[in-house]
Design brief:
Length: about 180
């Protein structure tokens, strides 16, 4: 789908060469449409060698067991997004430990998915009965008999067998950068 009107001022858009790439640009203001992107987040919460999974009640993925997750909101810090998603979908309270995996999926809407390791804090798994219809902590042996989504199988392997800690939240950067979400080794 081609962008015909500017989302900043409503002016007509034209195709223009921007740094060697044809881009839709506004004829009235400086707005350039850089593309269509979505950023998803996923949670890997481990408790007693079992991973928190939820069963999807809606498409895409209806009937598959996945790790809790969702898409970031425009003005919500990403570490708050994943804590909120875990609570909404499973009733579990968790705290971000760090970033442990990333998926880049270039397509018509370029999707980037950031997987977080979270520490279990409190609660028993209770599905929201909207997005998910079941939730629980499961061992690898239990997962063998479940309809676990392939990407989730990969993430579970990362969570249980990863060889390093990943990126942690930098709560005290050497330079104050207000409004930034910073993660580092």
């Amino acid at each position: 789908m081609e962008v015909n009107y500017c989302s900043a001022c409503g002016g007509k858009m034209e195709t223009r060469d921007v740094d060697g790439t044809p881009r839709r640009a506004c004829t009235q203001c400086s707005f350039v449409h850089w593309g269509n992107y979505s950023i998803g987040v996923g949670a890997l919460v481990v408790k007693d060698d079992k991973v928190l999974l939820v069963r999807r009640a809606q498409d895409p993925g209806r009937g598959y067991w996945t790790n809790p997750g969702g898409y970031i909101e425009q003005l919500e810090p990403i570490e708050e997004t994943i804590v909120r998603e875990v609570k909404e979908e499973s009733g579990i309270e968790a705290r971000v430990k760090g970033v442990i995996a990333l998926r880049d999926q270039p397509r018509s809407i370029h999707n980037v998915y950031i997987a977080f390791e979270l520490d279990y804090v409190d609660g028993e798994p209770v599905p929201d009965q909207m997005e998910v219809d079941d939730a629980g902590f499961y061992s690898l042996e239990e997962m063998e008999k479940m309809n676990v989504a392939p990407f989730t199988k990969w993430l579970v392997d990362v969570a249980l067998h990863g060889s390093m800690d990943g990126l942690a939240i930098d709560k005290e950067p050497v330079v104050p950068l207000n409004g930034y979400g910073l993660f580092r080794v």
